[in-house]
Amino acid sequence: MHTNLASLTEPSPYISTDLRPTNFWSRFFSFPSMLIVGLICSPFFAGVDIWRATLLRDPDIWWHMRNAQVLFTTHHFIHRDLYSFTTLGQPWINPEWLAEVPFYLGWRLLGERGVFLVAVGAIELVIGGLFLLCYRRCSDVKSAFLATWIGILFATVNLGPRTILFGWICFLAMVLILDAFRKGRDYTWLLPPVFALWINLHGSWLIGFAFFGLFVASGLLQGSWGSINAVRWTPQQLRKLGMVGAASIAALFANPYGWRLVMYPTDMIFHQKLNIAVVQEWQSLDFQGFHGMLFFITVACMLLFTLAKRRTWPLQELLFLLLASYSALTHERFMFLAGIVLAPMISVELEGLVFDKYDPKKDKPLLNGLIMAAALLVVIFHIPTSAKLRAKVAESMPQGAVAELQRCCSQGRVLNDYAWGGYLIWNARNTPVFLDSRTDIFEYHGILLDDIRAITLRDSLAILDRYKIDSVLQQPDTGLVYLLKHSPGWRVQYEDSTAVLLVRSAHS
C-alpha cells in the first residue's frame, strides 16, 4: 500500500517548546543557551596545550598556504609542481585550492594566531551544524548536547588546520537539507550550489554523492521488515531528487580544472595505493587505541538503547550507519564522518531514556549567565599568541635544522623527511624539496617508493647517489641517520632533539 510521506511527517521539531522560555533575558540566559555556549567553547576545554601543539603541527598546512600565496601573487591556478626538484614542472592539480584561502588570509592578518582562529572557526561550524542536526532529530536539547559531544570525540581523529574541515561542513549542510526534505521542507535547490562549492574545497564531495545516492535509494522501497521501515517517495519527490542530483553533477564542473578535478577522487581510490598504504590516517581503525574503543562502545550502547526502546529504524538511517561504519573501520580518518552520521542517531536513542525533557520553569538564568561568562573568559584568555604557537611548532618541526640548511647548503638537493616537506616549502623558499605530503604526484613518478626504500635502508646509498643528494634532513632515531653517521663521505652538520642535518663531505 502506498503511503504519502506527508501523512507520516511528525510535528516539526524546528521550533520546540522546550527552547521557549517566557522573555528575552530568560531565553538569552536559559539552560539551552548555556549548553550551546558550552559547545562553542568546547575546543578550548580539550586542553589548551594540546590545541597549541596540534593546530599547527599538521604537515599539510604549510604547502596549502604556499599554494594560496602563489594564487594571490600570480593570479593563476597551479597546474604544475613548483616546489620539488624531483617532479619540478610535472602536471599537478590543486584539489583543495579554495579551502587553502581562509588559512592564508588568516596568516596574512594575524600570523600563526590567524591560522589557529580559522581552524577553530571551521571546527565551531562543524560543532554548530552537528548540534543543529541532533536537535532536529530528537527535539531534546540535553540529548542533542550529549550526542554532539560524542560526535566531537569521534572528530578528534583529525582536527587541526585541515582543508577537510570545509568538506565536513558541506557534508553537514547536505545532511541537514536531506533531513529537512524527509520532514516535508524542501531546500534541495541548495544542493547544487553546495556541491559546486564543495568540489573546490575538498575531494570528500564524492562521499556526499554516495550518501545522497543512499538517501534516494532508501525511498525506492515500501514496507517494514522487523525494526526496519521504508517509505516510498512520491512521484513528485522522486522527480525532484532526480533533477537535483543531475544539477549537482553538472555543478561539479564549476571548477578551474574541469573534468580532471571531478575525476580526482577516483584517481585517489584506484591509482594511489602506496599513499593509502603508508599514510597513518588511511590505515584501518585500531581497536586497541582511543578511537577504536570509542567506536565500539558507542555502537554497543546504540544497540542496547535500541533494544530497550524497541524503536523502528528508517531504512535511510540504517544505510547511512552501514556506510559510515564501513568507512571508519577501513580508514581511521573517516571516524570524523562516523561521528557526524552517528551523533543524530545517538540523540534519538538518548531522548526520553537518559534525560528528562527540559522544563523552562526550573531554569536558573543567573547561574546560567555566570557559567556562560566563565566559559567565554576561558576562551578569551586562552587564545594563544603567534609567539606561543610558533614555539609549539618548533617542538615538532625542524626549525633549527632548516636555519642551518639555509646557511650552509640552500641550493643543494636535500632528502627531507616526508612530514617536513611542507614546512620547507613555506620556510625555506630557495630549497626545493625531495617530496612533501601532497603525496599524489610523488607516487605517480616513483619518488614516494624511493623515499620509503631509502629510509628503510633498502639501497639507501644508491638512491642518494642517483638523485645526487647533497644533504639529508631526517628525525634523529631513523635508520638512515644511523647509517650515514657511520658512512664515509657524510658528516653531521646540525643535530638537536627534533632533527639531524647531514651533508656530504667535500671530498666525497
Structural summary, described in words:
The protein is mainly α and 508 residues long. It has two domains: 93-362, no CATH class; 397-504. The protein has helices at residues 5-8, 24-28, 31-45, 48-54, 61-74, 97-110, 112-138, 141-155, 164-182, 191-201, 205-218, 235-251, 259-271, 273-278, 290-309, 315-330, 335-350, 365-381, 386-394, 399-409, 421-427, 440-444, 447-455, 460-466, 479-485, and strands at residues 223-225, 228-230, 313-314, 414-416, 471-474, 490-495, 500-504. The strands form two sheets. A four-stranded mixed β-sheet has the order 4-5-7-6, sandwiched between helices. A three-stranded mixed β-sheet has the order 1-2-3. A hairpin with a 2-residue loop joins strand 1 (223-225) and strand 2. The longest helix has 27 residues, at 112-138. It is globular and about 80 Å long. Mean pLDDT is 89; it is low at 1-19.
Q: What is the helical fraction, as a range of percent? A: 55-70%
Rg result = 26 Å
- Strand element count: 7
Assembly classification: single chain
State which percent range the strand residues make up: 5-15%
Task: Report the average pLDDT across residues.
Answer: 89
Number of discrete domains? 2
Strand order of the largest sheet: 4-5-7-6
Write down the overall geometry: globular
Number of helices: 25
* Distance between the ends: 84 Å
Largest sheet: 4 strands, mixed
Q: Can you tell me the residue ranges where pLDDT is under 50 for at least 5 consecutive residues?
A: 1-19
Structural class label: mainly alpha
